[in-house]
Write the structure tokens for this entry.
Amino acid sequence: QKEVEQNSGPLSVPEGAIASLNCTYSDRGSQSFFWYRQYSGKSPELIMSIYSNGDKEDGRFTAQLNKASQYVSLLIRDSQPSDSATYLCAVNTYSGAGSYQLTFGKGTKLSVIP
Amino acid sequence: GAVVSQHPSRVICKSGTSVKIECRSLDFQATTMFWYRQFPKQSLMLMATSNEGSKATYEQGVEKDKFLINHASLTLSTLTVTSAHPEDSSFYICSARGISGNSYNEQFFGPGTRLTVL
């Protein structure tokens, strides 16, 4: 069973602080990793993808990947109340017959306090 | 990022009727589309995967005769909930994966369809 684990939270941070979201995965062969943001009642929105070990920065977001530790993280700098949402970690896993599908974690609920 | 549309956004129907939901990739060709269902405060649940021109692959426990999926073109997939019952009320979300820029692995979600069966 290929699993993706996240702390469900809620994670509360004050406005302007750095929010740190973590994720571990079980399939050592996974090559593609994604972070989605989901507001309540809405569908997931892709905010970051990462494929190589190290850091990838996009605006206030930084994704970090460590394949040896099977660990992915997302840092949100200068957190804003509008960042309050559930963040889903997703890992592309092989599902057989040449197909891949995303395995999602259960999500971490982030609350940014004004 | 790539854009995926879904129609309708909300539907209310009587028990026993069938409902069709359309999912379109607007600015890229989706070689693979996925259908998910999400109940309130729960995780996304993958229902089925479809590749253009071939039969959908359903996840364990999802009735293929109840949830009919058609992926007739590289930009359109449809999900038909047949003989819907109140327990089918949920948030149905499609997503599409194709060649979009250099990131062919990326999967983009439609806005979802909220189905209420009375």
Q: What stands out?
A: Chain B has a mean pLDDT of 91. Chain B is about 0% helix and 55% strand. Residues 15 and 85 of chain B are 5 Å apart (CA to CA). The longest strand of chain B covers residues 30-38.
